[in-house]
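Ticket #4471: structure export looks truncated?
Reporter: QA, pipeline team
Priority: medium

Steps to reproduce: submit the single chain below to the structure queue and open the exported record.
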Amino acid sequence: MNSEAVAPPQPEKASRRRAFRLPREIGIFGALVLMLLVLAIFIPQFRNLQNIANITTNFSFVGIVAMGMTCVILTGGIDLSVGSVFGMTAVIVAYLLTHGVPAPLAILLSLLAACGIGLLNGLCITLLKMSPFVPTLATLAIARSFALIVTHGRPISIFGDEYRSFLWIGGGDVFGVPNPFIIFCVAGLFFWILLSRTVWGRYVYAVGGNERTARLTGLRVDRLKIIVYILSALMAGIAGLTEFSYLGSVTADMGTGNELAVIAATVIGGANLAGGEGTILGTVIGAIILEVLRNGLLLFGIDPYWQGVFVGAVIILAVSIDYFRKLLRHD
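Actual output as written to the record:
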């Protein structure tokens, strides 16, 4: 009996496919390097040490929140409340400090309030089977309203030696390195280890990759989801009190719109909103790209109102590049 022989795989084609299997982070890191080179060459002010310090401080606030958001997105969820939790935490700690509560206790109570919002989100999603969009949108309004209730719409400022230790958290430095950037690096290292070097991290990817399969294998999906939403709110709270410490003043609208910047940083960094794909390294690079872009536009003299247009274009470009990269990889 004659039969057609199956052709063996072409080594050249396989080699070409492997050539395109480069980590997403390499591409976005290359884009960041290109941006830095262009800005450094054409805008001398960009190379100013004070400007560089401002950039590292500013992307640290968004980056800290984005790390918690990355965990949520990896599970296939979304957290729209992070901007409001950011502001609420800052308002609570400011209110407590100005009413004589010691700084460590004020920080602890404000972060517990932030975790409470995360817990509420997680319980609504797991026990009540709500879409993540619904409870996080609700807590966005709740947290912002609570900040308005506490402040009555007025700013809260702290000055003087009695607040020096708290103001050092966001406004100080260690050997010239701004403290917000140090907190950002510590958080990045923690989440990198958590997601890439622990069993729990593999569970997070498993839930985002295929939640039904994860449940069938006995994974406690609901408990894991609750934890990631608490982590997201906690990181938003840490970033909020750090920025308040940096500024020394807080208003009820602090953090408004931050959720958009945070989600943008994770998407630019390669996170898949459907879940199961993304890294902390990518999120870090995405947060830096956003701030470098914003800073560069200001130094170029472009109207700040145009910033959203450029950020949106970068998001579309990043997702498009990732789409074509996947096509080449599976070709």
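Status: closed, not a bug. The export was complete when the record was re-opened. Leaving a note from the reviewer for reference: The chain has one domain: 48-324.
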